[in-house]
Design a protein that fits this description.
The chain has 696 residues and is of the alpha+beta class. Helices cover 32% and strands 16% of the residues. The chain has 20 helices and 19 strands. It has helices at 17-26, 34-48, 57-65, 76-85, 90-102, 115-131, 167-172, 202-205, 275-285, 301-304, 409-419, 448-459, 483-491, 511-522, 538-554, 580-591, 625-628, 631-641, 651-665, 670-690, and strands spanning 173-179, 185-194, 197-200, 226-230, 245-246, 248-257, 291-296, 321-325, 333-337, 339-340, 351-353, 365-368, 373-382, 402-408, 464-469, 497-502, 562-567, 597-602, 619-623. A hairpin with a 5-residue loop joins strand 1 and strand 2 (185-194). The longest helix is centred in the C-terminal third of the chain and has 21 residues, at 670-690. The radius of gyration is 31 Å and the shape is globular.
């Protein structure tokens, strides 16, 4: 291997004198061991893997000294200034300094001072870059009555640029736009805590509530006053997509709790650092938890998931936290901080943290350092970084000069139990696939009547569903009825649901093998409990088989889950002709007390009756001409759901593509053929185009 001569390496034609001077000021009193800084510098460069960067610390100094004069590399501060300036653009130098500060390299480096002195120098450097035109984009700080900000050295970034572990939280977060009774618009943040319920701060929506009004709220006659926007981020490609927007139901507020006071009487300065004042204030808050539950006109949580407040302990980790929010109504943002005065006592009504927040952050989600949901961001206390501070003054010291506070989710759940509102968390208002696409990226075309039938089935008004094909569509052979099972499994996914699917291979005509097939997907250990034909005969035999299945569904294993038994492709074997029909009838009778059981029969001829099941008992969902009559129109509507309004697509090109797709799909099972083709050949291209990463 030929070693590179650092002194001979090419460098910038001329050192950036202003940046070098800023770095020199920053490192003037540096007392950290050069070995530690050199080791960090070399590791940082090595991890970047950029051939344009210096090879190491010595190489960087040699490169910078070719054009810089008046700097003594014997001095640690000058040496580090030279090395960092050789990294290239000003932004790269700032990135290195920020990384070094975040690793604590400067926290104890200056005798007689604390770490905020170094951060003040860093802020000067950052402000210098800002003044020279560097676009910090999302780092726009605004003074607000409920929020405070940290110093500029705090990193603000879109969650799309950080760890994939944040993606669950990202899908559940929404921007909330509120037009109050005075028609003034404000923004806040919220997140899903049920299929159709979003949690936010009370003070975000209190402009819609008549002051002093207690008890149930009157219906919201103007639902346009609240808009909940999911995926509001440039990195999702859905920032302005109407398919990601939801409004409220008229009875929009499930439960609420007012803000409470932000300081004890007579408090001055950083009163929260005094344990007596802090604990006294916490004791006076009582039930003032500053939250509101918004009932959404839709069920976004069925595709996005939600945070189950019942399962959140409120405990956290001492080392750090994250807040996901929409500061000043901007894109999804994640900021990091640390927890203060943290106590394992989850009964406390507030958590103290230092993650940066501003107006619009209200209602944000506080996660612990491992990504677990912990609290609802509430407010800020103390001095705003850019509020009244004069140039040259040091940054406020986090935890001392300012601090943010959040409400533990466990306390909110306890309050909901007192209000008797916990059952509404799981209430589902309406069902529709997210952006017309199932969770595994398979498009769904049309089928609006089917989704309305699923709403009724999910509510449990009736607990058996039969999917039929209209007689006039029988010539299609398979117009999409088996696809119904895929839709059910995708929409009703997650730990709250368990699916037992019996297709032609698993389904049996007779009761005993059918019961065995069901138990194979429920609890195979219980198969041994099934009766045999030698034990008994007739209805008693079938009832004994059904009893084992019923006991399994009632067992603790499924106590909090909805069990779906789906018999698919039934035209291949007439279940109505064997003893299996008696098993279904018996299970149906039991379903009146088995509140967590749903039965779906797909493909029976439309005039089929199953003995023992009353004619009006099943929901009969019919695939008719309205589902397959306009395939080109169905494709156009699906394209619109993907965000067409944000990206112009030539209408003529869409017509040609839609016509070709309709011609292809009409050769067999139209809905499933069209869905499969789009999933395999178009979905990725459409997503890339809508996100702006490709051109038409």
């Amino acid at each position: 291997m030929v070693k590179q001569d650092p002194a001979a390496a090419d460098g910038p034609a001329e050192a950036d004198r202003e940046t070098l001077e800023a770095l020199r000021r920053l490192f003037a009193e540096l007392q950290a061991p050069r070995s530690a800084l050199r080791s960090f510098f070399d590791g940082w460069v090595r991890e970047r893997g950029d051939a344009a960067l210096p090879v190491n610390f010595l190489h960087a100094i040699a490169r910078a000294r070719r054009t810089a004069t008046g700097y003594d590399p014997v001095k640690d501060g000058d040496a580090l200034a030279l090395a960092v300036s050789a990294l290239g653009p000003r932004q790269t130098a700032l990135e290195w300094v920020t990384a070094a500060v975040s690793h604590g390299l400067f926290d104890t480096s200056m005798p007689g001072t604390d770490s905020h002195t170094t951060r003040a120098h860093l802020t000067d450097l950052a402000r210098y870059h800002l003044n020279t035109g560097l676009d910090f984009g999302i780092a726009r700080f605004h003074k607000g009555s409920f929020q405070v900000s940290r110093s500029l050295n705090q990193t603000w970034s879109d969650p799309g640029h950080v760890a994939p572990a944040m993606m669950l939280a990202r899908r559940r977060l929404c921007r909330i736009v509120v037009c109050d009774l005075n028609e003034e618009t404000t923004t806040g943040t919220g997140f899903l805590v049920g299929p159709s319920v979003v949690l936010t701060n009370y003070h975000v929506v209190k402009g819609l509530i008549t002051p002093g009004l207690n008890g149930p709220l009157p219906p919201l006659d103007e639902p346009w006053r609240i808009r909940l926007e999911f995926d509001y981020s440039s990195t999702t490609g859905q920032k302005e997509n109407a398919a990601s927007h939801f409004g409220p139901k008229p009875d929009w507020c499930v439960a609420r709790s007012p803000e409470g006071i932000l300081a004890p009487d007579g408090a001055q300065g950083n009163w929260w650092t005094d344990p007596h004042q802090r604990n006294g204030w916490l004791g006076t808050i009582g039930g003032h938890l500053d939250y509101a539950l918004i009932r959404v006109d839709g069920a976004p949580g069925l595709q996005r998931g939600w945070y189950d407040l019942q399962e959140l302990s409120g405990s956290g980790l001492r080392d750090g936290c994250w807040v996901m929010h929409h500061p000043t109504g901007l894109d999804q943002t994640i900021t990091e901080g640390r927890l203060y005065f943290f106590n394992a006592n989850a009964a406390r009504p507030r958590i103290f943290h230092s993650a940066s927040t501003v107006d619009g952050s209200s209602g944000g989600l506080l996660l612990n350092s491992r990504g677990a949901a912990m609290a609802l961001h509430h407010a800020g206390l103390g001095v705003d970084v850019f509020g009244d501070r004069q140039p040259g003054q040091p940054d406020p010291v986090e935890g001392k000069t300012f601090i943010n506070i959040a409400v533990p989710l466990s306390r909110i759940y306890d309050d909901l139990k007192v209000q008797g509102a916990t059952t509404e968390l799981r209430e589902t208002i309406s069902i529709a696939p997210y952006r017309g696409t199932l969770g595994d990226n398979i498009p769904v075309f049309g089928r609006e009547p089917f989704f309305r039938d699923l709403e009724e089935l999910h509510r449990g008004d009736r607990r058996i569903l039969m999917v039929h094909v209209a007689p006039e569509l029988e010539s299609f052979g398979k117009p999409g009825k088996s696809f119904s099972g895929d839709i059910i499994r995708s929409i009703f996914s997650g730990d709250d649901h368990h699916h037992v699917t019996l297709g032609p291979k698993e389904r049996k005509v007779d009761a005993r093998p059918m019961a065995e097939a069901m138990l194979m997907q429920l609890d195979p250990d219980r198969i041994a409990q099934l009766a045999t034909a030698a034990d008994t005969t007739g209805p008693a035999f079938v009832k004994a088989l059904s009893a084992v299945i019923e006991a399994t569904v009632r067992s603790p294993r499924y106590a909090n889950r909805l069990v779906w038994i789906v018999l698919d492709d039934l035209e291949r074997a007439h279940v109505a002709d064997g003893s299996g029909r008696e098993l279904l009838a018996t299970l149906y009778s039991s379903s009146r007390t088995l509140v967590n059981l749903r039965i779906v029969l797909i493909g029976l001829p439309h005039d089929t009756q199953i003995g023992g099941i009353p004619t009006d008992a099943p929901i009969r969902s019919v695939i008719g001409p309205q589902d397959v009559g306009d395939l080109k129109g169905l494709f156009r509507r699906w394209i619109a759901l993907q965000g067409e309004r944000n990206r112009h697509i030539d209408p003529g090109a869409l017509d040609i593509l839609g016509a070709a797709l309709a011609s292809y799909a009409s050769t067999g099972a139209p809905l499933s053929l069209m869905s499969g083709f789009v999933a395999n050949h178009l979905s990725a291209a459409v997503a890339a185009f809508m996100s702006g990463t490709t051109e038409p």
